[in-house]
Design goal:
about 475 residues; five-stranded mixed sheet; 20 strands; 4 domains; Nucleotidyltransferase, domain 5; alpha+beta; single chain; about 30% strand; 12 helices
Length: about 475
Amino acid sequence: MSETILAIDIGSTKICAILAEVEYSVVTIQGHGIAKSQGVKKGAITNIELASKAIKKAINDAKRIAGSNITSATVSISNSYAKSINSTGIVNIPHNEITIKEINRVMQTALYNANVPNEYDVIHVLPHNFRVDDQDNIEDPFGMNASRMEADVNIIMTQKSNLSNLKKAVRLAGVEIDGIVLSGYASSIATMDEDEKELGVAVIDLGGQTSNLVIHAGNSIKYNDFLAVGSNHITNDLSMALHTPLQIAENVKLRYGNLIESSNDVIELPIIGDEENLNSVSMEVVHSVIFSRVEEALMILSKSLDKSKLKDKIGAGIILTGGMTKLKGMRELAQAIFSGMPVRVGYPNNINGFFNELKDPSFSTVIGLLHYKAGKHTQYEIDFEEELLHSKMVREENLSDIKIGNTIQDIEKTQSNKNIRDSQDNQRQKNSSREESRMLFDDLPDLGQEKKSLKKLANWARQLF
């Protein structure tokens, strides 16, 4: 049976909404809408009214193309105010068989044991390792026999104010939120393949105003970080260095951006505040400005990777995705900075009905949201509503024949029947008492004339009873 889903990526440069059909975990895009981002800076909502208008425009465009309506959506939330902590849960298995109930219990225990600050709300509880009795690195404990189970989890949380503002902006756009996914997590879902998951991989999403880093090792994400630098910073640097308007600087970046080689060519650019004259700019200057900013961002992300202490668990290397990856030579520069690690540019995969403009690394997050909603989430994770997400079939007892409550008529009928039975019982007891007394007094012997007074008393008592 097919289901219609809506995914909304709320980015700092664009807001993208996609409507899709999901049937047996296969996603087919029906329509999409893209709006210029407003009221969002560095991943956080700064103006709820402007943000909601941009979100609404993207949603309406997607609905118009798809020809269908939907009132709930899965949305992305930026890594900008997200934090991660590790926790462990331990439970005993009373019946020696691990079911969904026991897995949920160990996950909830791990969440309960975590020291979550009051000003934060949990959005993901991701298990990256299970232990069953003395056996470690269990991929899936479901159905195993054991007396004890442990789970190591990565808890991702975000500030309550940031989450509240996001919910309010989406609701003002006319839809309710049925799922919240960290943007870096969504990008990793869209770009990783099974081999990379198995070997361990780092996914770096280079966006417009922010860059996200997540490390997938074991069964799920074990580390995430955030950098407030994106491709828009390159545009700003070019605008200031070349004294040209922002839109002209953006066009220069897209047309001439090259991280591998520079040239001595000269281009003519408009000057800020001077509409009559043009400024002659060497392409060598353009190359230097772009290279410096990208190199700085990648160096900071490399240090974050070292800080995670998980570098030795990343056998598949680095996946680069996001809009900034379209700069020529990005992969080569990243390979030089992340020395000794394979690097590839990740495109969103496994989607049917692709519109051509969505076949782009800048749409990895929103495609990842569709995959998440279609069931490609981490097995046994706890979502923002504290529900366990899994793909197992759970057998439930048939309770249809069990009557839980009684209607007023049932109660009155039951009471009436009880009164009738009580009355009949009382009557039978009285009749039985009379019979017994009659038998008792009739059996008294004749005591003679001198005892007739006693016989009269007995007759009187028999009549009385």
